[in-house]
Design goal:
This protein is mostly helical and about 475 residues long. The protein has helices at about 50-60, 70-75, 75-85, 90-95, 100-125, 140-150, 160-165, 200-210, 215-225, 235-260, 265, 275, 315-325, 330-340, 345-360, 365-370, 380-410, 425-445, 450-480, and strands at about 135, 170, 185, 295. The protein folds into 2 domains: about 20-195 and about 270-310, no CATH class; about 310-480, no CATH class. It starts with about 50 loop residues before the first helix and ends with a helix. GO terms for molecular function: heme binding; metal ion binding; oxidoreductase activity, acting on single donors with incorporation of molecular oxygen, incorporation of two atoms of oxygen.
Length: about 475
C-alpha cells in the first residue's frame, strides 16, 4: 500500500485546539476550527491598558452608546497625543501570553490605522479626495504595535486575520457558538458595533465564511494521506475511495463558504462600503502615503510601508490554489499575490507552504486526474469530476470577489488601488483567468467521459471568461489603465 493508514505529515494540524493554552499562538491550523483562531478572541484587556481601552471605546464615528465618537469630529489625533501613555512596558509584562499579545496587536492596529487615516476620512466625508494621511506614527502607538507584531509574527500594521476580521469578534451568548446572529464586533471604525450595520456585516460575513474552513483543512489532509506512493498495489480502489472522500469534504466546504459569501450583498450594502473603507487602506502603493510612514523612534526613523487589510489575505483560497496546483501567470500582478502571502499568521503561512510542497511531492494532481497511466475506472472518473467541481467552486469564489469589487468599489470611487495596494481593475481578474484556464486543461484531460455536469460547468465558465474580458476592457478604458 502507499500512504493510506501510514502517512505522517511534516506539518502539525491540530485536532485539539487547546483553547486555554496561553503559550501557543492564537492562530494555528486545525481540522475543527480551520483558519479561525484556536479560541474565541480575547475581549477584555488587563487594567494596565485602561487608557488604550478608553480611547478605543470613544474612537468610532458612532460609539456603542450611539453617540458621536472621536472620529466623527476628527479629534482622535489630539486625544492620542494628550491622553495615551506609552504602554510598551505593560506589553513586555504580558509577552508570554500569546493570545493576549494578539488581542493587543488587534487593538493597537485599529488605533494606528485610525490615527494615520483620520485626515483622509475627514476629507472623504466632505466630498473631497483622500489627500494625505499622517506621516508619523507616534511612539506611544508605534512602539507597542511593533512589539506585539514581532511577538505574534505579524507586520506592525493592520492585518486581516490577526486584527480586523478573524480576531475581532465576540459571542453575544457564549453557549450559542460561532453563529452569525450571535457574533458581535469587538472593535470598529464607523458604526460596526451595531451588528446590523454594513461595517459589521462586512467583517462578520468573513468570519462566518472561515467558520467552514475546518472541513477544508481536514479534506486536504485526508487526500494527502490517501495518495498511494509508488506502485498502487492491490488496495488501489481503497486508496482511490479514500481520496475521493477527502475531495468530497473539500467540495462541500467550498459550497458552504460560497453560500455564506453570497450573503454579503444583504449584510453589507454596496452603497455604504466606502464610508468605512478609508480606515482599512494600507501604506504600500497608496496616494495617501507617498513617502511611507515613520514609526517614531523605530527603524532608524526611516519611512515604512505595509499593505492594508484585505480579504485577499485569507488562507482558504490560497490553500485551494496550492492543493490543486493552479498555475499562476508570470506577471507583476502575481508578484503582488506572492507579497500578500506575507500578511498572514505565521502558522497559516507555514501550512500553505506545506500544502503546496506536499501536493507536488505526492503528485496529487497527477493522481486525481490519472495522468500517470492509471486504469480508467469509475473511481478515477469520479476523482476527475470532483477535481473539476472544486476548481469550479474556486472560480465561483473569485468571480463573486470580482463582482464585489465592481459593485462596491469600481462603481463608487475612482481611487485606483484596493485596500491592500493592488490595482483595483486588473488584479482579481489575473487570478480568475488563471483558474478558468486550469479548468479548461482539466476538462481536456477528462473529455466527454466527465459527463453532462462537467460540460455544463465548462460552458458557463467559457461565457464567464468572455464577460470578464469585456468588463475589464470597459473599466480599463474608463480609467485609462493599461491592461
Amino acid at each position: 500500500m502507499g500512504s493510506l493508514g501510514a502517512y505522517t505529515p511534516s506539518f502539525r494540524v491540530l485536532d485539539d485546539t487547546r483553547p486555554d493554552d496561553t503559550t501557543l499562538p492564537a492562530f494555528m491550523v486545525s481540522t475543527t476550527r480551520g483558519f479561525l483562531p484556536r479560541m474565541d478572541p480575547i475581549v477584555s484587556l488587563p487594567s494596565e491598558f485602561d487608557p488604550l481601552e478608553t480611547i478605543l471605546q470613544r474612537m468610532p464615528v458612532k460609539t456603542a452608546k450611539n453617540e458621536a465618537g472621536l472620529l466623527a469630529a476628527g479629534n482622535l489625533g489630539d486625544v492620542v497625543h494628550e491622553e495615551l501613555p506609552n504602554l510598551a512596558w505593560a506589553v513586555d509584562k504580558y509577552k508570554a501570553n500569546l493570545p493576549l499579545m494578539n488581542a493587543l496587536y488587534r487593538d493597537y492596529s485599529f488605533l494606528a490605522s485610525a490615527y494615520l487615516l483620520e485626515p483622509c476620512h475627514q476629507r472623504f466625508v466632505n466630498g473631497q479626495s483622500y489627500g494625505l494621511g499622517r506621516k508619523i506614527l507616534p511612539s506611544n502607538v508605534a512602539q507597542p504595535i511593533a512589539q506585539c507584531a514581532e511577538i505574534c509574527g505579524f507586520k506592525p500594521f493592520m492585518e486581516y486575520a490577526g486584527s480586523y476580521a478573524l480576531f475581532n469578534y465576540r459571542l453575544e451568548e457564549p453557549d450559542a457558538g460561532v453563529e452569525y446572529s450571535n457574533l458581535r464586533l469587538i472593535r470598529a471604525f464607523e458604526n460596526g458595533l451595531d451588528p446590523a450595520s454594513s461595517e459589521a456585516g462586512f467583517v462578520l460575513v468573513h468570519i462566518d465564511m472561515v467558520k467552514h474552513s475546518g472541513p477544508l483543512v481536514d479534506g486536504t489532509m485526508r487526500c494527502f494521506k490517501a495518495v498511494p506512493s509508488g506502485d498502487y498495489g492491490p488496495e488501489a480502489d481503497e486508496a482511490r475511495s479514500a481520496f475521493n472522500s477527502g475531495l468530497v469534504s473539500i467540495l462541500e466546504a467550498m459550497k458552504c463558504i460560497n453560500g455564506v459569501m453570497e450573503t454579503m450583498w444583504s449584510k453589507s450594502r454596496p452603497m455604504e462600503y466606502t464610508s468605512f473603507r478609508t480606515f482599512i487602506f494600507g501604506i504600500t502603493s497608496q496616494s495617501m502615503f507617498p513617502d511611507g510612514v515613520v514609526y517614531e523612534g523605530l527603524y532608524d526613523n526611516q519611512p515604512q510601508d505595509f499593505r492594508g487589510e484585505s480579504g485577499a489575505n485569507d488562507s482558504m483560497i490560497p490553500l485551494m490554489d496550492n492543493f490543486l496546483q493552479v498555475p499562476m501567470p508570470d506577471t507583476p500582478l502575481t508578484e503582488i499575490l506572492r507579497d500578500f502571502r506575507e500578511y498572514r499568521p505565521s502558522n497559516h503561512k507555514a501550512f500553505l507552504h506545506f500544502a503546496r510542497d506536499e501536493s507536488l511531492r505526492l503528485g496529487v494532481k497527477d493522481y486525481a486526474l490519472g495522468t500517470k497511466g492509471q486504469e480508467d475506472t469509475e473511481l478515477l472518473r469520479e476523482s476527475r469530476n470532483l477535481w473539476l467541481e472544486i476548481l469550479n467552486q474556486v472560480r465561483d469564489f473569485r468571480w463573486r470577489h470580482w463582482c464585489f469589487a465592481r459593485e462596491y468599489i469600481l462603481k463608487r470611487t475612482s481611487h485606483p488601488t484596493a485596500t491592500g495596494g493592488s490595482p483595483i481593475v486588473t488584479w482579481l481578474p489575473n487570478q480568475l483567468v488563471a483558474v478558468l484556464g486550469e479548468m479548461a486543461r482539466v476538462y481536456e484531460i477528462g473529455g466527454e467521459g466527465l459527463g453532462q455536469r462537467a460540460a455544463d460547468i465548462m460552458e458557463a465558465a467559457t461565457r464567464q471568461k468572455q464577460t470578464l474580458s469585456k468588463e475589464v476592457d470597459k473599466y480599463c478604458a474608463e480609467r485609462g489603465v493599461d491592461r
